[in-house]
Amino acid sequence: MKFFKKLLSVLVVAGVIIGWGSLAQAQSGHYSAKSLGLGGTGTAYLDTYHANFVNPANLMLNADTKPSTSIGLLGGLSATAGGPLMNISVYNRHFTSGNVVGSEALDEWFGSAMGNSRAMGLEIDVIPLAGAWRGEKVAFSLAFRNRALFSGSINRGFSEILLRGISQERFSEPEPVNFSSKGVAFSELSAGLSLQLLELPSLPGIGKNVKVFAGVAPKYLVPHYTSSIDFNSTLQVTNSEVIHDFSYTFTTVGELTGQFEDYYQARQDPNFEGEIGDFVDPDGTSFTETQGSGFGVDVGGTVEMDLAGPLKSAFSWIGGAKKLRVGLSITDIGSITYDSNAGQFSANETFTWDGIDIEDGLSDNFADSVRKEIYQNYEPSGNKEITEKLPTKLNFGAQLQAGKLGFAFDVQKGLYETGMNSSRLAIGLGAEYKLFNAIPLRAGYRTGGLTSSSITVGTGIELRNFEFTVAGLTVPNSESRGSGIGGAWSGLVIRF
């Protein structure tokens, strides 16, 4: 147990703690208060400057119900977190009873194989300022957004050491003991353009006043911070020794790179007696500095029509206009390059203890090796550039607006597993009723993606010229794929 705690204190400072520190300043995707309240949907209806980040074609929507110009002052904030590592059900069942944590808890959390891993993610989105304008055939938008993404994972072997210590019973053969984490923080300036490509008077039996929109939103990315660690190892306990065969790589930018390099240089002196804590001292002010550059783009298309024929008759029991929209988009295409004092450090070593007392003797020997050699025996590489892919996602959605009632459906698939982005298909459903034409009552359901199935709710005030709305997401049962939590606020939105 002491062995693990000291290992964690040394290695995590290089990645886990730094990653969390970067996020302290500040299902992947951009959510407004409306889209989160409706089950994380939005591909077919999310308009104004929010469309830049979900489907730029939607900048042309709602010409008949909303003014042409929208301004957002602190124009939106959202945060989501969750994943299989955050399994609240298992935690409540095994970690709050006061009993010793046994293998049953780890079986439920990770499965029986020592190599099984569980991950979690966290994303924060803030739009300090944004605006959009819509004309008859064209629409423009300019939006500034700050983003922070975190992802991390640990495997069962790592958790065995954390919760139950080391023993020959569980590590008689070499077993994997791994963990990883990554934190990324950046800003983006997005310029959206939407055009009406086509207008048809009707589609027989389906709709009328059919319009087809296409949009693109290129963005310039300003990276502020990144750090990561990828630790892979095997641990074996025999009758006479403990063998920990490990390798790790961690990356940093800014002043931390210089601090790790200074420690590496100091250790080249045979008489060096210092510790890594004497050199590494993260300064939160560096997280706002510009550390490189990057480019990205969001693209999409939307079809909008008034219902006609049998489709309209199917909703005849609902008063008011009936409109159908279908959208398709690809978001976050691109990457970020960190090249301002970027550093990469790696180690590939074996720690062997052949003493008798595993609990105390191993701990003392390990502490000495940490101070002087082995676990901190990393080498800087010549790589002075770090490139991170954006969490690219494919989105398809539909929305039916029937008077005061609205229904939404989305299917989303992440192409890269970054932050809350998951390659596991995610489906969102949502419904909305506009009370007194001013108070939206929203509810949704979301399944798939990184977390267990979740429910969402939202409300607020939404007038023709003003919006102030909120939404929340929670996971009722975290048994299958862990817990999740999220929230969104519209900010102060003015239309004229």
TrEMBL record:
Pfam families attached to this UniProt entry: DUF5723 (PF18990)
Lineage: Bacteria, Pseudomonadati, Balneolota, Balneolia, Balneolales
Keywords from the UniProt entry: Signal
Protein name: DUF5723 domain-containing protein
Signal sequence bounds: 1-26
Keyword Manganese in annotation: no
Location of the DUF5723 domain: 64-470
Keyword Signal on entry: yes
Species the sequence originates in: Fodinibius salipaludis
